[in-house]
């Protein structure tokens, strides 16, 4: 797992071999220890180079080992042995040096990086801190402010930035191992004392206390309940204020707390879940590894409203050539200006040239005749979308993939209106489409595996967390959101306020509670949908029966606010009040509170005290319950798909892993018991009726989340 060779007579080269990322598994650690010993005891060897096979130095500790009892040679003494070696050790960094990989490099006396290499300490994103001495060595090497920035954000830096910060000693465009060997030869015999980072004091920093206070405040604010960023600040503070050995002790204590925390488990689950969703599969048996995607060189976007503009930008930024179509000249000109601005700002941020020439604007749908893929993003209206799809079928060359950007419409119905339904898939983007990470790729029963593979591949190219899901009302994300929002409305009827509900959800970790979010996205959006569903009734009927519609409990609160013209931020009034239309700072609104009081009186509802626990259980367990229905229906292939959707697109706190992971952490039996409890209290609310899959999983002993797939298969085969 670590190969040892002698080159140029006197340089020992240690190559980490553990594909795909040369993670520091127990076998690799042992291999390094043995090879270092061999090099140091060989009198012919004057210096040592450590590198990784296949163009990647090291992706860090083996995250898979974290879930088990870690055995084997520990990382810290291994790195210490390298740093205290009496022969120079040079790290030859190609590809990535991340986490434990960079900590290993920091234990070396010199670091040479390829110009395309990326370096970082991303442990914080796994709920950890760089606890193989990284939190103590990096501040000593590059100073406290820069180290705090890297360690608390986990961001990766380019080789150029690493050189500027002083993390690496040299950057090369050529063969990195050759450069490192040459370098190792040149430094053989030099004193190593100044090169042992752990022996350096931290560079002096004026106003250290003020700096730490400021950073801690910033981190607490952005962490939204995550504990690792705070521990990272504490560890760097130890580096700045304590001798190395004591700093290491503090690093160890902080790591022990993080390591056993549920948050680290949740974040590591997210890491693997994000990769697992790329290995999509459909109920038909089609899979990612047996379905070939089609090349997409040229794409088109139809409809340049907010979504179409964002999608055009996302496509153009991947280097694709894009035809952007809008039939009205004025709208086309406005869109062109807006898209160019977005491309320019994006390019400036990324330090590249804007892809302005990549977009061709047209009023004529004929312009898309030779594209490989079209994304239709016209208004959310099935008749309009059908018309556009029929036009596209007539205009596009044979085999062009037709994608619809819809958040709720029936993808299969749309497909059935075209001569080639196998070429149709949904691509549900989230606004703003060039920023938001999530993409639901929606397949209907007739979508071909190739169409799904192509949309998934395109999503990956756009840097999206792309999740393949089946076709149903609301797909996965919005379908689960419905019971969540309905429960929040019911809680208001029963005595809660928007402030109380939002506070409970924001303390849980959502960036915005349900009512602040509703004010941001516009109350009229849901109103329109409810009207379409025939749920909105005019008038002021009172009593319980006025709140039973289509056989189930219904809260008209949102409709009543819309009737008052309260659409949220855009009108300056919604569940909260705002200084003026478009303003973002939500303030409590006395009008709303008296409105709720009058509403309850009208309907004979007596307000009761509702606590945060009830808010969380009612809103979150209703949402999770729908997740179980979705799994049972085969709309999502596994819990990971649902969790990636919620973490990437719906603000579910990442350190809680996603709704299905959270249910697993809370305990399925507990979730079931609370749903049964609330269902007894509210029998007219079907979404509180526990899903049969949840019941069956509990009855089969609540298997851990990574075994749900097997359990679901077994349970289905028994039906
Ligand atoms: C005492 C504690 C000391 C140290 C703590 C640590 O070091 S924690 C680990 C810190 N390292 C990281 O967080 C890096 C994680 N990996 C990545 O960011 C990327 O994988 C990387 C290295 C940039 C490569 O990206 P790429 O897009 O090329 O590949 P991909 O992400 O799809 O990964 C390929 C497969 O490798 C698996 N993998 C990646 N890193 C690790 C790892 N550190 N341990 C175990 N496995 C890892 C990844 O899961 C992929 O496999 P798959 O089967 O598809 O899940």
Automatic annotation (TrEMBL):
Give, as in the UniProt entry, the pathway in which the protein acts: Lipid metabolism; fatty acid beta-oxidation
Taxonomic lineage is:
Eukaryota, Metazoa, Chordata, Craniata, Vertebrata
- Gene Ontology cellular component terms for the protein in this record: peroxisome
Domain (3-hydroxyacyl-CoA dehydrogenase C-terminal) spans 474-578, 615-701
Signal peptide positions are: none
Q: Which UniProt keywords apply?
A: Fatty acid metabolism, Isomerase, Lipid metabolism, Lyase, Multifunctional enzyme, NAD, Oxidoreductase, Peroxisome
Where in this chain does the record put each 3-hydroxyacyl-CoA dehydrogenase NAD binding domain? 298-471
Report the protein name in the record: Peroxisomal bifunctional enzyme
Query: Which stretches are annotated as coiled coil?
Result: none
